[in-house]
């Protein structure tokens, strides 16, 4: 049937199918190919009220359940939670006529400064892959497609649309690709979304190696590849590389490049038919998955959201303060109590069905408490609010102080400058501590924060971003109705300076060099023996657990790990057990340990359960760049079982014969990678050795050299470039006041490449006109002005 449809289409129809009909719909060909609606996710639905006219992140959206985002889901370490959240989102998608949800976000948290970390799972590829796979299975079992994003090495917001990520092959294969690989092989998402950036010199939208050789030929991906919104660089090259669908639509402007490539023979009809076949198959699958007369109660979703928030909250400190008693005399303090931070900012911003703030939950519970605002959401100190909060704190036994990062501090479109909380919040904490030392801090953040102020607290509950049920989940944990069971999916450092990656983030404006290679997150901290505030995998409970009876049953280059976990405390609780692998005396450089398995078990007081974790060959493998394949080095391996990456309770040693592959020894040419604990930087010369070639220059362009992929923020040394930048920035501020994401819109403007002018204007501005702007910026003002005006003619649009 699909083959027949493709054969019946004209060349024009085939080409038109390769681009969206508008911002959110694929193109319909009446009687043959249905139009499919896709919307932003990943932690709910952001279906714009007038989606046909929507301009991505500007319009208001219909109400939907706001679930906790990926940062919180990952902290649950619970595959079932990820599955159930996605399944509930799918049910709501059926109600709203949506065919595909744009998520999950599966990029690695290379640095805590990435502004979009709240939308990603973890710094660890194994945990990220498990969560992403469960999410996709949960959604697609309910017949709604997922778009696995952003593929790949898109680990910062600064210049995200043009930056060249320079990543060595081992780091790419071992850190940045495994989560995508696992999700594709085990869950087969309907879509994979390619990212904006270049990878080692080639835009992902043009990248044949990534989109075809690895994604389809190696991993067996069967769905379509869609561009991130505005990520297309060269439409004809994209077709050849394996980019199926350009989003948003450009009213046919980019289609002209496909026509031209067919005419000059650089693109064949077979290339086009291959893409069109996948697009037709995708559209029919989504259309056939629609439910008739479907009904669903949003209250069901709210309960799922609450359970996810409860499971994803992480108890970081507890000096006997928690759980609270209904007899405790409590003060609830903080601007985030009423104006709770429950989701990130940007394209994933949801209009919630039933938002319950922390203040609301306390009020609804019937417990008596005092309240003071304490600080404003904007980081401005207010003496009157501080004095009021001090007065309230003096009258009570315990203070629950809600602190966190506001949307000004972290959002899509820009990175953070530091990891500190707003100054007005930490100043308030210090003032309150002077009059009441029994302070319980509740954190609402989407990422890591510096905790220099930890000595001024008796307990810290990190709820991350809790979704619309954030208040209920927070209350239930504080009062012991729920025993906290979340653990960190990222490391909390003592400071940014203690992290090697900080020297190479965000770099730019041309490229960012991943000189740390595989030493990301705890792989760096544990190998370098650097103290941290809270290690990867850390989290407390209201009960205690013990581990015993480790047994490792080896079979060839695989192993089955079994051990017992006992609840040694007085209340029911859930424990997350983590299994790491360490290799002794490796010829190649490796991290001190790597997560290779985990399980979450619920235990009654005194109960013991035996758990089993299977370690396959990949658990012991590294990527051999000489053979371009996974390899196992012969030698001694330790199986480590613990509560977090730094708390190993059980261990066993096995010997593997390996696979006979010749291993690569870099000790002479790149010694720093074997002595991570003894160095504080990696030279470009050593990085080039493991990268395999000379690292490209990151020299900034100057007037006369600017091109279609230069960003608006890079052209300000040209008088006209500076004028254009300031004009667009002013316009962005004016427009932003009437949108849902003002801060993101304004702060994204400097990072916009000129090619995006065509895509984000929906084709109103032609390539010819953009070329004219660039000529004007490069010093050819009148010639460029003529081309700009000429480009408005119909033949260029």
Could you list some keywords that capture this structure?
797 residues, alpha/beta, 6-stranded mixed beta sheet, 5-stranded parallel beta sheet, 31% helix, globular
Globally, the shape reads globular
Kindly estimate the percentage of residues that lie in beta strands according to DSSP: 15-25%
Radius of gyration: 27 Å
What is the tally of beta strands?
28
| Major sheet | 6 strands, mixed
- Poorly predicted regions are none
- Treating each run of at least 4 consecutive H or I residues as one helix, how many helices? 24
Strand order of the largest sheet: 10-16-15-14-11-13
| Mean pLDDT reading | 95
Percent in helix:
25-40%
Distance from first to last alpha carbon: 34 Å
Structural class: alpha/beta
Give a description of the structure.
The structure is a single chain. With 797 residues, the protein is of the alpha/beta class. It is 31% helix and 18% strand. It has 24 helices and 28 strands. The strands form 8 sheets. It has a 6-stranded mixed beta sheet with strand order 10-16-15-14-11-13, with helices on both faces. It has a 5-stranded parallel beta sheet with strand order 1-3-4-6-9. The longest helix is centred in the middle third of the chain and has 20 residues, at 269-288. It starts with a helix and ends in a 7-residue tail after the last helix. The model has no long low-confidence stretch (mean pLDDT 95).
